[in-house]
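To whoever is on call:

I kicked off a structure prediction for a single chain this morning and the downstream step that reads the tokens threw a length-mismatch warning. I double-checked the sequence; it's 210 residues and nothing unusual in it as far as I can see. Pasting both halves so you can look.
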Amino acid sequence: MRVSPRVVVLDYGSGNLRSACRALETTGAEVTLTADIAVAEAADGLVVPGVGAYASCMAGLRGIGGDEVVRARAAAGRPVLGICVGFQVLFDEGHEHGVRTAGCGVLPGMVERLTARRLPHMGWNTVAPPADSVLFDRVAQQWFYFVHSYGVHAPAGTDGRVAATWTEHEDDRFVAAVEQGCVSGTQFHPEKSGRAGLALLGNWVGSLQR
């Protein structure tokens, strides 16, 4: 009998929690929404959502010890998926409203304000994933829903450790998603991105069973 992967959506006071849970449930995962760090540590996959300001998200994450769990899982090769600001806080640091905030540091790079004239970058956009992407494998229609004014222009680790998926808003090119070993993340909201988003989440949940 095939056992459903156990996925925890981390509740640290930020993010579209219910919509993320519902979307993950459609993939066949056993989904738990919790702030319990022990449960998050034991899950097959951990999802870190997030909306709002980088600094406030990191404060909420630190408040429940979520940053330590993210680092421990990354070090142990246990899957983590960040969404929107939950993706951003996986990086080394964020520069927002003149404030520099240290992130979880499991992805190399800096989050900064986008340079496009019209912000926020809000709505549907296409992406360009690498050929060997696990997240985007067989995702036919790659339109995804974005809502943000900050992002990563150049992830470090250009030695090939980081597999980046790119997008553009006006003439501003930035990272739409990252895959580095057990750590993945999307700047867009897969739970709001229709069939393509569900297919992507299905790929991630499927990878937990390998």
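Update from on-call: the warning came from a stale cache, not from the record. Cleared it. Sanity check on the structure: The two ends are 15 Å apart (CA to CA).
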